[in-house]
Write a structure and sequence with these properties.
Elements (H helix, E strand, L loop, with lengths): L1 H7 L10 E2 L4 H15 L4 H14 L6 E2 H12 L7
Antiparallel strand pairs: 1-2
């Protein structure tokens, strides 16, 4: 997990910030405007598609790790190469 954190360029600071709630519009907007836009260089529309794909992939996971979620977002959009 530490390698993914380093590679993704994100490091949640607490228990609450380390998780993603797929139904929290404000939290997902933060991922869209922060990680997706700044680290991956995605437009809002492309980021939203990646967020939707990551949320769908983690649908059965109650406690969604922010690091894993962001990794899956990058994977879904084909931008894993921008992480490292």
């Amino acid at each position: 997990m530490a390698a993914i954190v380093k590679c993704c360029g994100i490091e949640p600071q607490g228990a609450v910030s380390s998780l993603v709630l797929a139904t929290d519009a404000k939290g997902l907007a933060t991922i869209c405007s922060g990680f997706a836009a700044n680290k991956l260089g995605l437009t809002a529309e492309v980021a939203d598609a990646g967020i939707e794909a990551a949320a769908k992939k983690m649908k059965e996971t109650a406690r969604k790790s922010r690091v894993t979620f962001c990794y899956l977002l990058a994977e879904a959009i084909g931008t894993l190469n921008k992480l490292c």
